[in-house]
Amino acid sequence: MLFFKRYFLIILFQLLCSTVPFAQSSSPNEISLAGTWYFRLDKNDVGEQEQWFDKNLNDEIKLPGSLTTNNIGDDISLTTPWTGDIIDSSFFTKPEYAKYRQPGNFKVPFWLQPSKYYKGAAWYQKEVTIPQAWNKQNISLFLERCHWKTTVWVDNNKAGSQMSLGAPHEYDLSSLLTPGRHRITICIDNRVHEVNPGPNSHSISDHTQTNWNGIVGKVVLIEKPLLHIENVRLFPDIDKKQVVVLVDYKKTGDNLQKAIISLQATSGNKHAASLQPITAEKDLKENTGTINLTYPMGDKPLLWDEFNPQLYNMHVSLRTAKESDDRNIAFGMRRFSTDKTQFLINGRPTFLRGTLECAVTPLTGYPSTENSYWKNIFKVAKSYGLNHLRFHSWCPPEAAFNEADSAGFYLQIECSSWANQGATIGSGLPLDTFIYNESERIVNNFGNHPSFCMMTYGNEPAGKNHKAYLVKFVDYWKQKDNRRLYTTGAGWPVTDSSDYNSTPDPRIQAWGEGLKSIINRQPPSTTYDWNNIISKWQHPTVSHEIGQWCVYPDFKEIEKYTGVLQAKNFEIFRDFLKEHGMQRLEDSFLLASGKLQALCYKADIEAALRTKGFGGFQLLGLNDFPGQGTALVGVVNAMWGDKGYITAKEYSQFCNSVVPLVRFSKLIYNNDEIVSAPVEIANYGSKEIQNGKATWQIKDAKGNVLFQGNLNAAHIPFGNGINIGEIKASLSSIKNAEKLLVEVAVEGYKNSWEIYVYPNQLPEVNNVYVTQTLDDKAIQVLNNGGNVLFNLKQGTLAKNKGGDIAIGFSSIFWNTAWTHGQAPQTLGILCNPEHEALKYFPTDYYSGYEWWDAMSHSNAILLDSVAKNIQPIVRVIDDWFTARPLGLLFECKAGKGKLMVSGIDLTSNINERPEAKQLLYSLKKYMTSAGFNPSQQIDLRTIQSLTTDEKL
């Protein structure tokens, strides 16, 4: 009866109150503060001195929200005090950016651009009316997401300050909020003060979510009974089939001694066993304490994992004779553990197929607290075969955990820091204490979520004593909470104390490796793995930030940035392309570079899956990273939308819980060879495969099956490196150059690879003079009306004609702005595969492995240094920062003859290079046909100057 009386009084009082309408309240014990607030910017840091908390602020703002979503702040300019390193500062000096440095047309190339910007203190104020029913009760102010230091006053009384980037700010205002009208004032400061987590930390940086100022998510006053639940911690034990429940309580008043605590677990699964409530009477002598209970989960509790994310709800009730407090906590019965070098989920091996979530929030500039937002992210990630998300140097809101629980995703959470490049950890600075406090806040708020499987301090630490500090941090948490696994830092250091290793060593391209990487140095194969790297470690290894393969910007995205961040960087890059006369090619550049990007990701992911006993990988990333100079590394865009060159279905063939794999020693063959390759499978599915069907096929370009066979799937246990047979086929029946498709299918899972077969013997083609220098004979042939193929030896192209462009097979790694121009500096080729010059060289319009040899023996010719508007037969896609017209092959008239200019060396060591031999043959056949009739005349002196720095 007392409960209903209190409920009625609250309704009545709030209906009479105009400052906070009752319609905004979500429950009888909450008053929502969402809506109109008053604010004032404190640019000169005088607010506290002038006691703004005791004065009426006049300007209006909507909360939840940020200053930027309310269009408050300064215009972007050369003096904008960005948060985050700008490695390539050429924007501020280079003449090509001059027009973008002007007011009214200001555009930055290094990240998405907010509509407004403000760094400093901002004051927010709202009047509230406290109902009589809340008299002498506990009242707290709950701010779900603030950025990032808050200080609160009630009327003219200071309630305190808090700093947290990854957890709610909650203030106990019980002694300050008596029944009646009060003014709540909050000062929020988004500057780095005493605690410096690192300017590039995604928790604070303008690289991604922006360094916003405001409050988002739930903004409420909460009334709590005199005896109330402070926190509930659930520790599932799948072996004992029970949950240890720790209920932290707090009480006000010595007269409260006896309390009844009740637990009831339920499941939404109709097949779940019915569970009985348990009740206990407790004598609560202390004002704060913890009640420890064990709840039995029945004989067959439903287990949570990626395949069956079964969730339970634990209802906790703490009652006295006069009032009660209740909590509902979602949890899962799961154990995420390790066995030697493998991760286990509920005792079964699993493999982490992950990507990074870097707080990329183009529409709001801050992380969403809405479940629907995160539901879409996990849906997309799952469709691409992933089961894991790493939150790089930040912790997401509650909604992300909710949806990860439902989707069955394994999360790595980080305590808001990237202590590097302007910050250090373990140096005795305030950050050292902050990390411990932040980790406590994160675990207290989100620790019951089954998806919360892994935790680390943050990303890539620096500091003289960082290793010792992080070892102690890991040891602390391993002893304190066994519900998840811990490692010292994302990337490094690798230590024996960690539950798992995070290291960048196992990947096909490393920072600074350039053209010496596996994919750029070694001829195409699928045999390499990371066994030698991980053999020295006893823990599971997760490869850190693999991939980082770029694609050309999709300029159609520009119109999708309808929120606070605009793609002004894309506008700059589109202008560059237009200025070089290639705007018509923007879609072709996107699709062609995207196909190469997908090939590179396939190579990276399969190498990880081939590594026996490997722990998993974390991509950087599945979606684009719009900061750090603009890193377009995603096969989906910054808003998780498809880009059009690879589907989720295609991607999940090589990235999935079960993936067939083939170890090809090479992908380029002559037709006098035999394809012989062992077939393996990585099985991290929900069950072992028994008496399965497994086959292989080799098809031609028309889909005709040329060769086929069966594989052994009688018993495929969990794990990888499991041999299931061999592909073996003689290629002697293939007479012409062919691109073939090798497919392996195992119980509904399919994977495929392209191989290329060339005739070992080719007919002679006469009447074409092939040379690596435009010597006297070549000039004589041309002046006599003959045909010349001028193929430049690699390294002989003049620097000002393209010789200074680092070209390789792979796509650009991360981006050239952030890596100081790391090679390769191009994004593959674009060609018309129907062009007669390529008739005998089977290819698609983009770089496949048939182009590895050419790109490894080539120069990218700057076409403008030869003539304007040359339309090359094979074009090289340039970096979007320079957008130069580049070519590998073009034709022209020269003298009285006809000339084919090749940036590819087609003659050196030709007998060891079947691709070059075949391409040379195809070009010569074209040059002796009627179709070879170039229209553009180019002076011979211009062609000769390609190998000199002479400017004509």
Automatic annotation (TrEMBL):
InterPro entries: Bact_Beta-galactosidase (IPR050347), Beta-gal/glucu_dom_sf (IPR036156), Galactose-bd-like_sf (IPR008979), GH (IPR017853), Glyco_hydro_2_cat (IPR006103), Glyco_hydro_2_N (IPR006104), Ig-like_fold (IPR013783), Ig-like_GH2 (IPR006102). Pfam families: Glyco_hydro_2, Glyco_hydro_2_C, Glyco_hydro_2_N. Residues 32-225 form the Glycosyl hydrolases family 2 sugar binding domain. Residues 1-23 form the signal peptide. One of its GO terms (molecular function) is beta-galactosidase activity. GO terms for cellular component: beta-galactosidase complex. Residues 340-487 form the Glycoside hydrolase family 2 catalytic domain. One of its GO terms (biological process) is lactose catabolic process. Residues 228-334 form the Glycoside hydrolase family 2 immunoglobulin-like beta-sandwich domain. Its EC number is 3.2.1.23. Transmembrane segments: none annotated. The keyword tRNA processing does not apply. It catalyses: Hydrolysis of terminal non-reducing beta-D-galactose residues in beta-D-galactosides. Keywords: Glycosidase, Hydrolase, Signal. Belongs to the glycosyl hydrolase 2 family. This is beta-galactosidase. It comes from Ilyomonas limi.
